[in-house]
Amino acid sequence: MSLKTIEWKDNSVIMIDQTKLPNSLEFVTYTDYNQIADAIKTLVVRGAPAIGVSGAFGLALAVLQCDTKDKDELITYLENAKKILFQTRPTAVNLTWALEKIMRVAKNASTVDEIRKSVIDAAKLMANEDIQTNKSMGKNGSELFNDNDTIMTHCNAGALATVAYGTALGVIRAAKESGKNIKVIATETRPVQQGSRLTAFELKHDGIDVSLIPDTAVGYTMANGLVDGVIVGADRILQTGHVFNKIGTYQVATMAKQHNIPFYVAAPLSTFDLKSNPEDVIIEQRKASEVTGIGDKKTAPDGIDVINPAFDMTPPELISGIITENGIVKPPYNESIKKLFEAKK
Ligand code: RUB
Fold first, then answer.
1. Are 266 and 327 in contact (CB under 8 A)?
2. Global confidence as pTM
3. Distance, CA 271 to ligand 1 centroid (Å)?
């Protein structure tokens, strides 16, 4: 069984503290939605689907924290909690999706007790469904890869970015479970090192063959025939097929195109944002210290100006296919994504 990133237990939320990986596997327990907001902000929990479920569990804690007997008061309390949770990280759309879904459940309930029960049940269900969704995505995507393929991945779109199993790494797990011998090349993913700290840790933990490369070796490995395909996750996918994902994804996709290597994205339907245009999406800018040092060690001069976007946008023409729990969509994305959501209704 792959790692379980986030769990509801005895009216509290238990998470792996991802800031401590790979040096130690530690769990934290939260009983206050403000702690969840903080955990999302400080990357204790990260990855689009995991952030969504964390937001839902944040609202589940909020219904327990507010001890009113008045329904309107409880809804107002939840609206405020939703606002605080929403403000944590702007780019991954799964957070908005999850918070809105839970708020709809709360507003549809008729009594205070019913709100409490239905919100907690819905958040727990969302967490369970995330695992099932990843398994379906894995099954759908595993056919894209052949025995003895080496697959490159960027950032961490694994068990640690979801509740368990993973999106991009879920596809790799499923391909392996179907009997294929698959090797993985993980980029280290500067500046926060989700590749070296998290992907390398989780694949090694699960006994999957993984080699780590510096981000700067993407071109070298592709040019030397060491890569058969690429698979990454996503934080937001637009109707046009533009994919927002961890900074550097665009470079990997461009290099894959240059070398005729298929580039796939694996993400659940909750990662799609059918309303926004590329220019509407807020790209999170993170602190300079992530770039000017590694851990406590300084690697740049004091006072240097820094540009540190957490995400970039990969245009549809670089993407060979998008794997979802309801099937794989291929270009032209405007049509195939529209059809995917029409079939869902
Ligand atoms: C995470 C990141 C991941 C996607 C994965 O960034 O960009 O690739 O969230 O999502 P961060 P998915 O570590 O800054 O949160 O699991 O849907 O593929």
1. no
2. 0.96
3. 10
